[in-house]
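Review box. Two proteins, two foldings.
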Amino acid sequence: MENQQPNKGKQLKKKQRKQVVFRVNFLFFTVFLLFSTLILRLGYLQIVKGEDFVAELARVDEITINTTMPRGRIYDRIGHVLVDNEPQNAITYTKTTQTKARATYDKEGNQTSEDGMLEIAEKLAAYIEKDDRRVTVADKRDFWILLNPELAAEKVPKEERKEISSDKKKTSKQIDREINQLTRDRITEEELNSFTQEELKVLAIYREMMAGYAYSPSIVKSEDVSEEEFAVVSEHLSDLPGVNTTTDWTRIKLSKSAILGSTTSPIEGIPKSHLDHYLSRGYSRNDRVGRSYLEQQYEDLLSGQKAVHKNIKNRAGKVIGTEVVYEGEPGKDLVLSVDRELELELEQMLEKTLRDLKQSSTASKLDQGFIVMMDPNNGEVLALVGKQIVRNEETGKWDVLDYAYGTFTAAYEAGSTVKLATMLTGYNEGVVRLGERKIDEPLRVGGIWKRSLFNRFGRVSIDDVTALGRSSNVYMFKIALSLGQYVPGRASSIDTTAYDKFRDNFASFGLGVRTGIDLPGEVEGVKGPELTVGKLMDFSIGQYDTYTTLQMAQYVSTIANGGYRIAPRVVKEIREPSVDGIQFGPLLQETPINVLNRIENTDAEIAQVKKGMNYVYYGANGTAARLMEGAPYTAAGKTGTAETFKDGRSTISLSHVGYAPAENPEVAYAIVIPHVTTHYTFQTSATTNNLVRGALDSYFAIKERRAQEGTESEIERLILPPIEQVEEKN
């Protein structure tokens, strides 16, 4: 028994030791697992997620500063400045996330914190002049509350606040919003009018400071900052935290051409309609952006890149300075394909024509005119000219306004100029053959007589070339009737797919579809809704669907270059900003030629249509015979007259398309003058003919002079001064 007792004690102790060892081992193993997990986690965070966290830190600490980088310049093809930047002194203010509206004070009135925006505005008001024209009633209410916090609190008594707060359905934000609105509404007119002139100046400055965003400089004053104001503020910057003196840029238009577009000002900022678009791309609300046409279309290139600064914080997390990470860069320069000298001459011609026409009593509906010239081989637009003539209500005289964008946003019936497309459609669809003769004679369809202008009652045998040269309506009617499988005497019997065939073929030339120009707002035109035989005949002579002047230019260019529809382009080159202001900056990109499609007609069919266009100018009975007499160049074209309507009145609209030289086209043109007259005479069509001759004379004269001067042959072209006496600020 005695031996069993010690053995039992030994076994118990041994068992206890084993348990201790197990527990210690388990503890060590657990600690090992925890340390292993921690090490793995740290490794994962550093190796796998390291770059992500660095990027996140950069997003927090690196901020894009709304610096006033100058926008890219815009030049014409020769180098004349069309849009420039004008530097001007500016005073800015940048607030941070710690900036307060005003400083805090103790009961004795001693300032207990750093200056807030109100105190800075008061100091700044002593150094600069600032008008209060932009101060609103809402601004005055906010400012009165800021200056009179105790009186403002009394506007909504405690009992009323308690009652508003007792509504359990309202959130704390809704309660604060309601109390704030009641406070604002109860500020009297007398209180709003109690501000002194000096306080209004402080308010005008304060509202500009408040308008900015954290770390984004807002312009307090940029127009008419005197040298004295600039110097005094610069001298006292140490007493004006957040205030800076810098150089701002004003956009200057040196050309009247509307397609250049415009920009917003820093005060306007981003238009509400495009706010989400720009904010998602890193813009600030008060950034100036392109508002229309070229300035809008090429905003990404023209705007440049903002500077990026990195915040420097102390241990408390307060920003104590910034460090430049990226200095930003100016916008890229655009060199247009447009020849502004040529464009100006065309504008003067068109303006004189509209003024002369407007003298007639039959021109009551005339109000617009358009000219487009382009290179048919590469799509470069040489001139986009549009004019509106309107009565000045004050002077009673006629004013002529720029309407260049109407060349691609306004569509009209083009008349006989589309007969080239009708003939090519006939060839392509197999309803007319090369050289085929048809009888031009009056046709009676659906009880209505339809005739050619040159042959009212007789029967004349003509081939396809002569039909184009003399502008035979009947020849085109018979193509349309064949395409629609019309049975004589059955006016309702027509294959309406003829419309689709016509429109598909016309679209391949650029008629009735967007041309692809690098400008916003282009329209396709209007397609007639009725599908009758009479309307099909009208379609074939250009008196049904409507087309823009630019579409007409693309259409005739397609014929001129042998059948390739090329997208028109206004921007020829993208360049780095000029280093010295004398020569263009390095070339970044030349806009490529964009061939949209090749028409399905054969070379022989296109050549046959070109013969018809030559007949127009040089044939004995051509509709513009002798127009090119004495010209040192050759040309080919097609005239057009359409019976149209405006404001319930019957009118005549004119068009004219063509290209030159006839044997090797280098320029194509389209002219449209809608609603020229309410009473047609044969002299009416001379209007567009004269414009064509004048435009071509100008084009070749300018070309010859430049060839002698070597203007366009220089590898590094010089920046040339504007050629217009215009200076419009955006």
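Next protein.
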Amino acid sequence: MNVDSDATRPQIRPHPSRDGIQVVDPIQETQFSLLTPDEPDIDDCDPDSFYFPADAGATVRTTAVETPYFVSLWIRDETGSTVAEVSDRESVSVPPGRYNVELATTQVKLQFAIDGGIEVTSMEDAVRVALTETDRIHVGARSVHERPAATVTTTEQPEDLMQALSTLGSALKTASCERSFPSLRGHPPLVEIGDRLDIPNSITAPETGVGIEVPPIEEYIYPIVPLAYYTGARIESGPSPRIAAEDWSYPLDGDDGFEAEVERVLKHVFLMDCVTRTEGYYQVDLHERSTVESLVDLNFADVYELPLSEQLRTYLDVPFDTVADVVPKWKLTADVRPDATNVSALPFLANELAVVRCPHSRETRDEALEDLTDQVESFFRNNPDALRRSTRTQTRSESSPSTASPEIFRPDPADSIEQAYVGEGLPVGASKMTLDAYYRRLDFEPTTDPQIQVAVVCNDQEMTDENVVSDIYGTRDWIEFGIEAHEQLTAMEMRELLRSDIDFLHYIGHVDDEGIRCTDGYLDTRHLSEVNVSAFLLNACDSYEQGRGLVDSGAMAGIATVTDIVNEAATSVGRTAAKLLNQGFSLAATVSIIKEYEQIGHHYLVVGDASASIVENRSGTPNKAVVEETEPGTYELDLYGYPTLSTPMGTMFIPQIDGIQSFCLNSGLMGTYTLDQPAAIEFLHKQDTPVEIGGSLRWSMDVTEL
């Protein structure tokens, strides 16, 4: 699908319902609003006139703009030097001059060009930028979405594969440690299998002076691809795996094996880059830097000036165990079957800096499903009322699992937030990724309509309790939703609904071998020719095959089940999933949290592009809090981040807590804060987020006391 480049650029336009402007990214279907004292005049301006790269620009005639929630910002002069920084509830004023103001927004990259004075006022839930001696502010917007620059074709021969995959680093926008910022890592070119090796002239691999040598076997090539992309390294054939530079080398066959060593090096280099970059363009107080500095004897100002090859050498001279505890929780581990048909997944996995493994052994179906059966029995033991009701409607399926089910197995566990599998079979405990869904991420039709469409379908009267999810979506400020609730659909009505442009479908009902149960029979999604629903939750028994049918027919991704589920437990899962998705968690992160807190959570998996989200989190990175009372009246609040496609690993995060001015990386445990009860509740009420209290998952807006 060819997409009009103008249609993919951010749009800066009058706000549809308030005095202000709305910046819309049509590719990511995200939006950011700026309020003004009265209705502003808006004219186009040259995007090239801004200090940072911009895709679109507009001149807005107004005296002030106000953000819908608190964001950090930096004010720089014409030379790029920072003259003021706002990262907490503080106010600053700068005299008339020419300035660039960068906002720490993540939905769209925003900056202001101002020729005049600036007065910044920070409030609890907003930031106001007022102008003096001018009534014009130039707004520049850059999409956070990156498309591959081209497609590389390769044969299945290992030597050709290595040359093709060596081009992925061409997407890096810098060879400095600042490439640890997501906005300076472009999407790698696509790689497809063909009759010959063909590398377009537009793709030029970076000259970083770094190579990675591995035996010419897919099991060695695939795992090093994200590391090669991130370091801009050439992939070359060699007798044993190692990083090879001009005058140094580093072995990649450690005591725990090749894949484990590659994982360690990727995490090690990424962490050290994030620390070193604080000496460069963004000289911020980063929590991880202060921790690493206490553990190593390095002058990071000197390290910053080194070329990439020497930076790597310096990093790797530090034993990984020294800094291992500071490495952020990794977003994604992907098991990729080392088949040529799966090579096209590698650029997408490299783009997320995934840890890539090539699986060798599998559990049997019975071993993989044994724990799931135990969970169902445990639920009934702990819920005797549900057991009595189960004599009437035992589960959401009245037929046994399909005899045509794919091979079921459990991949090896991974120390990451998300786990995915690329290849044939049904992976219990991991997302089932598909190449079509990856490509669909790039090729869907852009829309300029900011309203997100959600359909809730209940096809069983006994399950209407769960239909309260239709009241959960769309409760957040600043995001516009269109909610449709449907009950008792026929097969034709369900088919037409799936053909419509819906961002998210939440189905509540039965799924059998024949398909999705409707009032007049079944709709088998495996036989559909068109599905326009972007994402879905099939909250029904053994719904994987129907979920896979939706993805194969056009959906981006969805949540499905791998075995029978219990009505009461599934209702709880449905409500939790609805709230998590409504807060901007990706489908994979949603399932990760469901597995942690819901009794039958391990029955669910994502099929398709598991990184898909239906909305953006308003603070950038979706997060979860864990609150524990350490002594009477004193509470320890742990904050956990869940990176997304629009807030990838390397994004910085700062919680809006009085006195906190240190940023942190946005993945896993981001920080631990000691607060009294009023301060803890004040923070929790800033945004409706999941919060663990006493081992149970609650929602922060419902917490009135601890």
